[in-house]
Each structure stands twice: as C-alpha cells, then as structure tokens.
Amino acid sequence: MHSQGHKGIALLLYSPITYFLLETGRPIFAVGGLVLVLMLSMVPDKDMVIPLLRHRGPTHTIWFAGVVGAVLAGVGMVIQFGLDQIGIVAVAVPVTGLFIVGFLSIVYHIIGDALNPSGVRPYKPISSHKHALGVTKSGSFLGNWFFYIIGFAANLVAVALGLQGLLV
C-alpha cells in the first residue's frame, strides 16, 4: 500500500478514537493523536531505504509497534520532566496516550499491508503465519485512494459527531 492508502487506513481506524476524545472533551488529544497517527503512518516502510532490512520484515511486526509506542512514551516522559523542572506543573503529558498512539500507528500500517496479496507476518519470530487478505494490490491507484477517501470521510463524521457534545 502507498502513502495515501496507509493514511486512509490510519484515518479510518483512528476515527472512533477521534470521536471518543472529542465526545469526552479532549479536543487537543484528538487532534494531537490524529496528527501523530498520520505522521507515523509510513514509518514501517522506512525499511525500504535502510540497508540490511527486508521490506515487510521487522518493522512490520507488533514488536516494532511496541518499540515505537515506547519511544513516543519516553519522549513524553522527557517533556514532562522538562516541564516539571522549569516549574510548569499544570501541564500533564499523556504518556500512556502517546504509547497507545505510537503502537496503533504501526498496527494500522500492518493492517493496511495485510489487505494486499503480499501480506505481512506481524508476529514473527514467534509465528511465521502470513496475513494476506488480497483485497487490493499495494500499488493500486484506486485501492489507495479509496481507503484515503473512506478514512477521511470517517474522520469527518467522527469530528462532526464528537463536536456535537462540545458545542451543546
């Protein structure tokens, strides 16, 4: 799957979280999470430019998702520590939320790649089972843009419904 497709899958799968965060009065977290999910949506494909890494190898596993989540949470802890050191204690960095967003961003990418015939092995080395649904080829112009449009629309609906609670 190409960038549009992966961003679309991320938008689609993140839309319930967008809705929930807006509905519960956390618009900054909704927007921040959405921005991070989109920014991280192509990180697993960096394996195509890193020598010695096979495409859809280690960067397309849940273990890598955990590492990305942990790195994001670690950055959040460093930011929180820095804010505490300069006396800004009224701001709480959502460290757990950062882990979840980092983890889910990679999982969303893996799901996107599982939709094509080449598939992925997300549990390797524990399991070599290949997940390949064959819904669309990774290079399909229509498939990639279909998921982008559907994901964008799903997030618009999530925002519209979630904002109703904030505006009432």
Mean pLDDT: 93
General shape? flat
Low-confidence blocks of residues:
none
Q: Helix fraction?
A: 55-70%
User: Distance between the terminal alpha carbons, to the nearest Å?
Assistant: 40 Å
Given helix and strand content, the structural type is: mainly alpha
Q: How many helical stretches?
A: 5
* Main β-sheet description: none
Estimate nothing, just give the exact number of structural domains: 1
Supply Rg. 17 Å
Order of helices and strands: HHHHH
Number of strands: 0
Strand content: under 5%
Describe the structure.
- The chain has one domain.
- It is built from five helices and no strands.
- The chain has helices at residues 3-23, 27-40, 62-85, 95-114, 141-167.
- The radius of gyration is 17 Å and the shape is flat.
Task: Provide a compact summary of the structure.
By secondary structure, the chain is mainly alpha-helical. The chain contains five helices and no strands.
Question: Which keywords apply here?
Answer:
single chain, mainly alpha, 168 residues, flat, 5 helices
Topology (SSEs and partners):
Blueprint: H1 3-23, H2 27-40, H3 62-85, H4 95-114, H5 141-167
Helix pairs in contact: 1-2, 1-4, 1-5, 2-4, 3-4
